[in-house]
Amino acid sequence: MAQFDVFVNANSKTVKQFPYLLEFQSNLFEDANRAVYIPLVSQGTLKKPDEVLNAVFKIGDKPVRLFPLDISSAPRSAAGKLVGNVQDDSDLVVAAMDLLFARY
Fold first, then answer.
1. Sequence-separated (6 or more) residues with CB below 8 Å from residue 1
2. Which residues of the chain have pLDDT under 70?
3. Would you call 90 helix, strand, or coil by DSSP?
4. Backbone dihedral region for residue 9 (phi beyond 0: left; psi -120 to 50: alpha; all else: beta)
5. How far is CA 2 from CA 14, 21, 71, in A?
6. Contact assessment for residue 40 and residue 65, using Cβ atoms and an 8 Å cutoff
7. Per the structure, how many domains does the chain have?
8. By residue range, what is the domain housing residue 83?
9. CATH label of the domain that carries residue 67
10. How many H helices and E strands in the chain?
11. What does the pLDDT read at residue 78?
12. Can you list the alpha helix ranges (DSSP code H) found in the chain?
């Protein structure tokens, strides 16, 4: 598991709302039994998406949006099958997190 890997959400209670989980924490913590995940939602889920906060990625042929307002730590078992990696677009993820935690 690596930073910016995308997994199928293995939690049956939340998979419909959040079909994918993006691992966000640094690779320095890859031996921990928990990870920090940012959920990804289907592109049409959000009524008024913010173009920075809710960046769009393609997982396979499905467009999805980042939903960092529900960022959380979860056991690594919450992450199902590895389905992608957004390392090439990691600046979009970091920009969303910068916006989320910015002091205005």
1. 23, 30, 35, 76, 79, 82
2. none
3. helix
4. beta
5. 22, 12, 17
6. yes
7. 1
8. 5-101
9. 2.30.30.110
10. 1, 7
11. 86
12. 90-101
Q: pLDDT tens for residues 57-87?
A: 999 999 999 999 999 999 988 899 999 999 9
pLDDT at residue 77, as a whole number: 86
Residue count of the chain: 104
pLDDT score for 52:
97
Show the CA angle centred on residue 12, arms to residues 8 and 18, nearest 5°: 50
Q: Which position has the token pair 């939340």?
A: 14
In sequence order, what are the residues at sequence separation of 6 or more whose Cβ sits closer than 8 angstroms to the Cβ of residue 102? none
| Of 2, 3, 1, 54, residue with least CA distance to 24 | 3
Q: What is the pLDDT of residue 58?
A: 95
CB 35 within 8 A of CB 1: yes
Measured CA to CA, the distance from residue 40 to residue 17 in angstroms comes to: 9
